[in-house]
TrEMBL record, chains A, B:
It holds the Pfam family polyprenyl_synt. Residues 1-23 are annotated as: Disordered. Keywords: Magnesium, Metal-binding, Transferase. It comes from Streptomyces pseudovenezuelae. The keyword Transferase applies. This is Geranylgeranyl diphosphate synthase type I.
Length: 362, 362
């Protein structure tokens, strides 16, 4: 899936769902603090691996170059561990946050196991501005390192004496299964004829592939804070809805994003005929523009057709639908958050992270 | 790795390490009883998967044909779950055995996750006399189904209320990491020049790839019986040594096995220039036959050289070394078993299983 490193006017124009405007500073502070407290856990876990697996993991996390020399490290934004720690703090205060470091590391390990495997399956050659692990170490070693990271993640929780650790491990394991089903659905959808794909299918896929782990991260934080089952589920739903909002906006950026800011060519998703959320919304709109878009999607990509394709998605309502949906998902996320964390001050950190993933970047 | 379905005169000729002769009947009874009690756990776990993942898992386990129609099922010999249950019974009696069903299913799920992934990496096209999952569903789906089975295994233990379940999950997770390192070492060794590979390296690889999960299975049974740390480690060592004995004998069969009984062509491992244990023992023997073997291994395989290659391994002492090593490993396994389970009657089941994997077949 996409990293949380893109942003665009399209995103900045999102309605704010009634939340107070945030400048992203709070989220940046949370993310920095997360890295500082979770990185040592993560490094210790990875250092416990046998040499062959450790080398690939250190490369993937950006802590080593391919030749084994130390690197500065650029292991993503740490959104998921930040959600674990911030959810724990929101429901149980700083003490709960302090007990949830392993859980935060476990979620980040699971995320990175899926990145290693997804990159092999999708033949993606770049990740976090570096060659992907499979391009450096080969498919087999990238698969094995991913397998080892999953084991490391669930092993961390199994060794954690915290009373919530078993429930957290069960939840994380079940989330992995959902992530696998989501990745399967994603590749299966891309292989199908555009006319056969329903909006429900793409939304379900996006929830499994993107929403599930964000929801699980929040739920684990709640579990470590000793929250009630109801609050754990509300936090899971908060993360899932925020994740879907992120995906909707990421898909908008994939079509209307400014190449100068996204680093990708204009209309990148249309060029590869991706069945992203706005495209499927457009294709299933029953409008004349939907027919035009379906015809264009039948043809191989030609640069001179790009503008017409973009306009067809717009005229068929794909962009508006995605933006309204994203705002709606964010509103639902806020409802769930308020249900579990009534005090606005305690909820502030999670709110800032949700705003960050759906609207901002650096 | 190899399934426990081959046998041969070479194996039958193994010294029996002082153990009373067994006709394999006791092992067959244990394996049948294991299937009867573990299969329902296993089926329930697999049935809990989302449709896409369930379909691949059911095919891999032999419970469905590729088209989704029911199949008779031929999911291997269930040696590993049998070791879990028999170790639990040896140290804690029938009540301990009854509590260890989930742990037994978890070990079998981990074994099958590694088979799914190893088949993708090794490009193996046949498993249990059927086309491998990746040949039917593609690489991506076989990788995802393997990922899901690992999660299912560790999730089963996380949900298990038994007081030993966390320790068991931690041990199984750590075993997965060792299995990954073993598979990496195996493929890395096969890529290296025969003259550069040491016997220690091949033994370490075989222990990680084959011994680790057999040891872990026995250790999990001991944990579920509430055994002391010392007994858990002794049971782990028992399984590891028996696993190494199995691998040594399997490698002997790979060269001297009777094609009529193994179903593979004569000298199959030599034809693919495999650096199996007897071959590396021969290559590192410092004898004139070692030099001859090294020269033959430099050349592409030619059928007319097979007899000379087999003889070179023999004259360099590869066969004798492997047989003595196998007997030695079995003796060590028995020592460890006796240390933890002093009563010969209680130890009988584990002894029968060890004899079965190292000497017998269907």
């Amino acid at each position: 899936m996409a990293e949380f490193t893109t942003a665009d006017q399209a995103a900045a124009e999102q309605p704010s769902a009634g939340a107070p405007p945030l400048d992203g500073h709070e989220a940046a502070v949370i993310l920095e603090r997360t890295r500082a407290s979770v990185d040592p856990e993560l490094r210790a876990a990875i250092d416990s691996l046998p040499g062959s697996m450790r080398r690939i993991a250190l490369y993937h996390f950006g802590w080593e170059h391919a030749d084994g020399t130390p690197a500065a490290g650029s292991a993503g934004k740490a959104i998921r561990p930040a959600l674990v720690l911030t959810a724990a703090a929101a429901l149980g205060g700083p003490r709960a946050r302090a007990t949830a470091l392993r859980a935060a590391a476990a979620v980040e390990l699971v995320h990175n196991f899926t990145l290693l495997h997804d990159d092999v399956m999708d033949r993606d050659t770049t990740r976090r501005h570096r060659p992907t692990a499979w391009t450096v170490f080969g498919d087999a070693d990238a698969i094995l390192a991913g397998d080892a990271l999953q084991a490391l993640a669930l092993g961390l929780l199994a060794e954690d004496p915290h009373p919530a650790s078993s429930a957290a491990a069960a939840r994380l394991a079940s989330c992995v299964v959902e992530l696998c089903a989501g990745q399967h659905a994603d590749t299966a959808l891309e292989r199908r004829h555009p006319g056969e794909v329903t909006l429900d299918e793409v939304l379900t896929m996006a929830e499994a592939k993107t929403g599930a782990l964000l929801g699980c991260a929040c739920a684990l934080g709640a579990l470590y804070a000793g929250a009630s089952d109801e609050d754990v589920e509300a936090l899971d739903a908060f993360g899932r809805q925020a994740g879907l909002a992120f995906q909707l906006i990421d898909d908008v950026i994939g079509i209307w994003g400014d190449p100068k800011r996204t680093g990708k060519p204009a209309g990148a998703d249309l060029a590869v005929r991706k069945k992203s959320l706005p495209v499927v919304a457009a294709l299933t709109s029953g409008t004349p523009a939907a027919t035009e878009l379906a015809e264009l999607y039948e043809l191989p990509y030609a640069k001179e057709d790009l503008e017409r394709t973009v306009l067809a998605v717009e005229r068929a309502g794909g962009r508006d639908w995605a933006q309204v949906q994203a705002a709606d998902r964010m509103a639902r996320a806020m409802d769930e958050l308020t249900r579990a964390v009534a005090d606005p001050e305690a909820a502030g950190g999670l709110l800032a992270l949700a705003e960050f993933v759906t609207r901002r970047s650096t």
